[in-house]
Amino acid sequence: MRRLQTFKLLAATAIVGLLVAACSSDGAGSPRPADAGDGTNTTTEAALPTEVALPTLTIATSFAIGDLVPLDNSFWGPEFGYVELLMRPERDGIPSPWVLQDLTSVDDTTWELTLRDNVMFENGKRFDAQALVDLIIFCNDNNVSLAAALQLDSVEITGESTVTLTTTAPVPGLPNVFADESQIPVFDVSAYQAHVDSGADASALLDAGIYTGPYVMTSLDETKAELAPIADYWDGTPALSALTIKFVPETTSRVQAVQAGEADIALYMPTFIATTLKGRADAFYVTGEPTGTTFGVQLRNAGPYADVHVRRALFAAIDYRALAEGVLDGQAAIASSVFGPSFPFAIDTQVTDLDLANELLDRAGWVPGGGGIRTKDGEQLKLRLLSYPQQPDSGTIAIALQSQFDAIGVSVAVTEVPDLTEARRGDDWDAAIVGASLLSFSLSPEDGLRSALVTGGSQNFMGVSNADLDELVATLSTTFGQDERNALLVQIQQVIHDNGLWAATIMRQPAVVSSAAWRGYKIPLANMWVDARTAPSS
Amino acid sequence: MIRLVVRSLAQAVVTLLGGAVITFVMLSASPGDPAERILTARGQESITWLQIEALRSELGLDRPLPVQLLNYLGGLATGDLGASWSTGRPVVDELATRLPATLRLTVASLALAVGFSLILGLVAAAGAGRFPDHVSRTLSMFFLVVPSFLLGIVILDVVVVGFGVGVVISDGSWSTVLFPALTLALASAASWSRVLRASLLGARSAPFLTVSRARGTTNVRRLLVHELPNALPPFVTIIGLEIAFLLGGAPIVESIYSWPGVGRFTVQAVGTRDMPVIVGFVMISITLFVIASLAVDLFNAVIDPRLRRR
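The joint structure predicted for all components is written out below.
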């Protein structure tokens, strides 16, 4: 009898448990944002009758923000509106003042930095000349890549709102260094030092108010960050009443979060998502203006591809229009130059010309052989082309190139490798599709050229060694005048083209997935997803 | 009994050590530069060679592999799993932060799996060879052959996005646990129900049940009072052993449902080759499996005196 009671009790417990579990997720746990009807989501506070209802924004992104420690994780800040930089990246690659009011080159090694008089840290302190000097010294001492780029000699206060900085060598790219999110985030060094001295956990920085952005982070855990607007922000009233950033590494989950109303915008969208969302009314694939070219073709300077004729033939055989409009279904723009057309120095060097491609291969001694594959001295012209899964479009482009190169008699074998960098360090490859462009975060071409195409560059896996190019890039890195720099960059592009050193396959359009309310979202430059003016109508 | 416990503990230690070494060596041998992956995982847009070198030095990746392994095993012995290469925080802290969510999911899926398997197994045994048995078998086969990731995707697409029930981005709380737990539980429930059915039918052939039937005991009473208690040991044994399986299945289900648990964190760690986190997860899985095996051994020894004498 006791056994029967025990089993009855067990059975009842199981049934009750199931019912409780079922009821508990009937949607009650789904924090779907209230829809104001006009397409904007409103918070309870903002809905008070005496206040104007400001919209909220929830973003689903793939990367988690670890903490607010400057130099470790603060590079997320400029992207989500809680950290600012001294200079702001611009579409033409020439940064404009952001927190600084002005940045002037006095001579080759001297710069004058002028401060605005109304920039405040979240903790209420003013961002003054002393704070700027402290900031530059701290970052230079603690950031090796900044120290290498800045070549700082001295920095001192020379006026109430003026700081003079000198370098040990000419650094014409200094505005771009100041506009790079991984170099100098603007923060209150003294407040941060006090935090470090206190021995408190990094989470205490949530209350330290060390940054200057329009939004301040109020909570942060492994799943999301919540931010609130700064009422007296120096550059106007922030347009959102609340900002939430959810960390969702899975691409499809980010899209579904928008479809289910759990997020307004999903970031980092691969091109294929556009196809899956066609005809849907619950989420939209929103594209922006391309800033630079992407998916460059790198050719290893070895074997048949050490011959400039062969390299140029391959680049002439690429159907740039077909890649952008057909292969990627119009989700990319045609790459007619190594850099994008928004740069004043860009020249169109990438032209599809199959006749030229065939002529160049003939001139190199590769003649049509059996099966349409060109041969030379009994050897077939084969190309081992690498793609990588982290950039799914690289595989799509590689397959398209296989077909396009086949038209000029080059046999292409596409291999997807788990680590493209590691694969390119070896010699079991001839060509690779590389997602990165030659532009830095602040859209400066200098760093990319130096690392990928200059002799001995850290990313020069191709083994490029061209004396003309080396000299031109060296001259560029010490030339200040914009016209002179543009002229040098034109020459550089011509050398790249004439020697078949690099070709960009497409200009990928930056894309996000948005809800109907945020369909008009203008995708900003350099992943600066949120600023003080970001709103549904913007 | 003491000898059994000592022997099981010794096996557990060897298993843990072997698991740690094998995982470490396999990850070290795989291609790619962890420092570069970490900088990429942290979302760095432009990575310089100087940054990579500095990080390699900071993480000790510039030291010989045996030294790295010895340092790791030394830390392991003191309960230090090192720091996550991606976040820079101690792995123990990272896993501890996410463990409650995974335990919540495991407990919920365990409860659902036990509940469903009891229902399916009892129904199948009660109507053995007849319609209820066929229905139970069909359902079990369906849940066994449909992969959990497919089931999860369908639930998300149809139920959550389509009908607006539940959430896509789970917060790891009890209120969002149903669908992830259900997805994780169904395959286990299916296999467990088949074990229970077979055990119930085996118990039914016992002579005392003939007497019970002759005395006019109802079918339900015989099933629940006489057959089920006798069929429980193999059922409980397989549940004990498969708790580790539930945890092992968590990475897939947690990733599908954005469940903020240890499994999903480990999947991300695999992508970035965050070796300390991966090894930490493997160690937890091995530990759990070893504990479960030990518990099952002891449980069986308690209920079966013959095992105690070996």
